């Protein structure tokens, strides 16, 4: 029962921490690696243009243009990086703590 309750909490905490960590990564990248940030922004623009230029009906295309933008794709990229970092730390923490929790 304990694991059943901890799983949604763990997923929620991962989302919350990545939502905080992504803008921090974005600012750090802008300060320390502006050339790399330009590459990410160019790639985000290419993804945005690809998605909005599909053969969707005009109603859906207009909605996509309204609800998405290039900066959002840039932030999504940094959110994915943040989630990978969190997963690596969480996995290493779990591996380190699990033997301590086993009581034979």
Automatic annotation (TrEMBL):
Top-level division of the source organism's lineage: Bacteria
**Name of the protein:** ABC transporter permease
Keyword tags: Membrane, Transmembrane, Transmembrane helix
Keyword Membrane (UniProt)? yes
Q: What residues form the membrane-spanning segments? A: 12-33, 75-97
